[in-house]
Design a protein that fits this description.
Length: 138
């Protein structure tokens, strides 16, 4: 099971890299400010981290914490909980993106982390099932 746990730690590192990337996105990535309805054009180019500040770091840390807790717990139910949580956060983030006013909610979740979490959860399920079959044949 240590390989699967290492996978969750690696996924947490990927989430950190994605979070750093997202923090440098310009505002127009999560708003419709390029239409000029709610913000000036120079505000559209402002990085998300400059606009939101430290609260953005906290929001972007949610996947990292989820993945590290999953690595620590090491149980399949925690993997499904983390994956389901990421799916919900990603849906909420996508739904809120593109509005006229910037929102931290728009930065929740993310498709790459959610997809990788799902693949890792399925791999963990297969490893767990194989171990159970092996143990029952002894």
């Amino acid at each position: 099971m240590s390989v699967v746990r290492a996978g969750w730690v690696l996924l947490a590192a990927v989430a950190v890299a994605l979070g750093v990337s997202v923090s440098n996105w310009p505002m127009y990535q999560i708003t419709d400010c390029e239409l000029g309805l709610s913000m000036s054009s120079e505000s559209c180019e402002q990085p998300l981290l400059d606009y939101f500040g430290f609260p953005l770091v906290l929001v972007l840390a949610i996947p990292v914490v989820l993945f590290l807790v999953t690595a620590g717990v090491g149980r399949i139910w925690m993997a499904w909980t983390a994956t389901g949580t990421m799916l919900v956060l990603t849906a909420v983030g996508f739904y809120s993106a593109g509005g006229s006013t910037p929102s931290l909610v728009s930065t929740l979740g993310g498709l790459p982390g959610t997809a990788l979490a799902l693949l890792l959860t399925i791999a963990q399920l297969m490893v767990t099932s194989a171990k159970r079959r092996t143990a029952s044949h002894r």
